[in-house]
Design brief:
This protein is of the alpha+beta class. It contains two helices and four strands, in the order βββαβα. The protein binds zinc ion.
């Protein structure tokens, strides 16, 4: 690796359609991280003192708030789908005893 990146992570709050998203933004590049994939308390504990840390692992970076929102709604969707699957299974068991007709 020949590149050199000195991130300056600060805590930032964004408002979007009434939802507040608190995450880390790098002042050097403007990149955002997903607060659900990255522990923001470790990466950017402060709003005004930049934290010079490259996140461990391979978190996804986002160039815009919209990209981050899209990613975060995918989180929502996957938990939502999981929950629905469980509910459907339970329902199927209950119904199958009574009738097979739709
Ligand atoms: Zn995420």
């Amino acid at each position: 690796m020949s590149y050199y990146w000195e991130p300056k992570w600060v805590r930032r709050k964004f408002e979007y359609e009434g939802v507040t998203i608190e995450t880390c933004m790098d002042l050097s590049t403007g990149l955002l991280v997903c607060p659900e994939c990255v522990n923001v308390d470790v990466l950017c504990p402060s709003e005004d003192k930049p934290n010079n840390v490259i996140p461990s692992g391979a978190p996804t970076y986002f160039f815009s708030l919209l990209d981050l929102l899209r990613h975060m709604s995918a989180h929502r969707e996957s938990t939502w789908k999981k929950r629905v699957e469980v509910e459907e299974e339970a329902e199927e068991e209950f119904i199958s005893g009574e009738s097979e007709e739709e």
